[in-house]
From TrEMBL, chain A:
It comes from the Eukaryota. It is found in: Cytoplasm, Cytoskeleton; Nucleus. The keyword Cytoplasm applies. Belongs to the actin family. ARP6 subfamily. InterPro entries: Actin (IPR004000), ATPase_NBD (IPR043129). SUPFAM superfamilies: Actin-like ATPase domain. It comes from Erpetoichthys calabaricus (Rope fish). This is Actin-related protein 6.
UniProtKB/TrEMBL annotation, chain B:
One of its GO terms (cellular component) is nucleus. Residues 113-144 form the HIT-type domain. It comes from Erpetoichthys calabaricus. The keyword Zinc applies. This is Zinc finger, HIT-type containing 1. GO terms for molecular function: zinc ion binding. Residues 1-21, 34-72 are annotated as: Disordered. The keyword Ribosomal protein does not apply.
Length: 397, 144
């Protein structure tokens, strides 16, 4: 029986699953731990590491582009293999994502690996944002245009789509992503209170647990300066020790000790302005010296370079995807800033899907059920007959 | 007499003022650090290299496993490139990786204290870092 495997191959996690099944989010990398010598852990084997302090990452992507093929192949061997998806390559088509403006040598290696190494029956290479746009247009069939904001691990892309076609002239990349936010938080904490430079894994969890996007940046700055209980931004985070405390957590407010030290022995991080100043980098990259527009300004800039009659349609169909859009307050802030930067006679609407990380995977699932799907893929026979050329011709990439 | 420098020039040399180029290099170094996958070294880096496998009798047999392995090496060599190789070699006409980068913001630059992160009004004379109060300036000078 023919099946389709949808793989949104991200720089940090792979979103993978059969189109008739559910999606799994799995680390797209390998790990080494301080305690388990001689072993390299692949993808979801992360769960086997009992003490992930000082976890060492080996990533297949660099700046959002696939460069480390041996790592990527190890991860794919694991994902496609008998431990996970048990792919029967001869009877499986694959929908796989790649970044915007991917480099042709990467695309060629991808073709070779999919068709010659794994020997998939057929393949469709596509941008993750195109899958998101497909899903959005399916769910909102009256809309003509949308603008996909994909804020991921390596960077943030703003991409306008009109009737399912991406508008290349409007594509805008901001070089701020989740990796940079975690590294920035790591540096701040290491400078101000505790050396955590080796603890990317732990601090990434801290980021996910405590960081939020401010709705009024300077007001939050004032609150964060206050002493004692009045400081509602301040938060104490209990770090994991991986023996009794397996996972870090925020101390409940009623248990917080504002005046002195805790008598319990656990290790605490006290967080104030870092909670919102770190995610603020997405909105003002220049705050840390990256001279680029932030997300709302880039959205407006991108739309203003498009034909005038289309512009209102983009402003009322802004779709947020990618892990950073899960930061509390992210949607409201994007709305607030875009609203204030656009003329009042334009309607502004910002949509945050229920699962922004898997939104493009769900789009891939929908696409594979589309009656035109068989015309969009390239079969292995096609490829063997025509080579890279046919892929370049057919894929809108 | 050569050991003893005038005290004034010594003071001046201690408080070296960094020029623009140095400040920019420093900023670039900081931004590069934010791109790093890991701060620490690979925990396997110091392990002794495993003893190289001795040739076996069946090495000449073209078993499928062996074939797959050589293929992998081929890929490794052919595609072992870093990111820099790519964008230098693939600037095409029309929208591309370089043109897609967000332009500089039109909003005014905001300044934050390099020590505590709160809005800052003062600039360190030597290195251009920002600070907000005397206390933070002290910390900045000690830790720079």
């Amino acid at each position: 029986m023919m099946t389709t495997l949808v793989l949104d191959n991200g720089a940090y996690t792979a979103k993978i699953g059969y189109s008739h099944d559910k999606v799994s989010v799995i680390p797209n990398c390998q790990f080494r731990s301080k305690t388990a010598r001689l072993k390299t852990f692949t993808a979801n084997q992360l769960d086997e590491i009992k003490d992930p302090s000082g976890l060492f990452y080996i990533l297949p992507y660099q700046k959002g582009y696939l460069v480390n093929w041996d790592v990527q192949r190890n991860v794919w061997d694991h994902l496609f293999g008998k431990e996970m998806f048990k792919v029967d390559f001869a009877d499986t088509s694959i929908v796989i994502t790649e970044p915007y403006f991917n480099f042709s040598s990467i695309q060629e290696s991808m073709n070779e690996i999919l068709f010659e190494e794994y020997q998939f029956h057929a393949a469709l290479r596509i941008n993750a944002g195109s899958l998101s746009a497909h899903k959005y247009f399916q769910e909102n069939s009256s809309e003509l245009c949308c603008i996909v904001v994909d804020s991921g691990y390596s960077f943030t892309h703003i991409v306008p789509y009109c009737r399912g076609k991406k508008m290349k002239d409007g594509i805008c990349r901001i070089n701020v992503g989740g990796k940079l936010l975690t590294n920035h938080l790591k540096e701040i904490i290491s400078y101000r209170q505790l050396h955590v430079m080796d603890e990317t894994h732990v601090i990434n969890q801290v980021k996910e647990d405590v960081c939020y996007v401010s709705q009024d940046f300077y007001k939050d700055m004032e609150i964060a300066k206050l002493k004692g209980e009045e400081n509602t931004v301040m938060l104490d985070y209990v770090l994991p020790d991986f023996s009794t405390i397996k996972k870090g957590f925020c101390k409940p407010r009623e248990e917080m000790n504002f005046s002195g030290k805790y008598k319990t022995g656990e290790q605490i991080l006290r967080l104030t302005n870092e909670r919102y100043a770190v995610p603020e980098t997405l909105f003002h990259p220049s705050d840390i010296g990256i001279q680029e527009m932030g997300i709302p300004e880039a959205i407006v800039n991108s739309v203003q370079n498009l034909p005038g009659e289309m512009q209102p349609h983009f402003f009322k169909n802004i779709v947020l995807t990618g892990g950073n859009s899960l930061l509390p307050g992210f949607r409201d802030r994007v709305f607030k800033d875009v609203r204030s930067l656009t003329p009042t006679d334009f309607e502004v609407s910002v949509v945050l899907p229920a699962n922004p990380i898997c939104y493009s995977w769900e789009g891939g699932k929908l696409l594979s059920e589309n009656p035109d799907f068989d015309e969009m893929v390239i079969t292995r026979d096609d490829y063997e007959e025509n080579g890279h050329y046919i892929c370049e011709e057919k894929f809108d990439i | 007499e050569h050991d003893k420098k005038p005290s004034r020039s010594q003071e001046a040399s201690q408080r070296r003022i960094l020029d623009c180029a140095t400040r920019q290099r420093r900023l670039n170094r900081q931004l590069d650090a934010l791109e790093k996958d890991n701060f620490q070294d690979d925990p396997h880096a110091n392990l002794p290299q495993l003893v190289k496998r001795l040739p076996q009798f069946d090495d000449n047999n073209e078993s499928s496993k062996k074939r797959k392995k050589t293929r992998g090496d081929h890929f490794k060599l052919r595609f072992r490139k870093t990111f820099k190789h790519f964008w230098k070699s693939s600037v095409s006409e029309g929208p591309n990786y370089l043109t897609a980068c967000a332009p500089p913001s039109k909003l005014p630059q905001r300044h934050f204290c390099a020590v505590c992160g709160f809005p800052s009004n003062y600039t360190c004379v030597s290195c251009g870092a920002r600070y907000c109060c005397v206390k933070c300036l002290g910390t900045h000078q000690e830790t720079r």
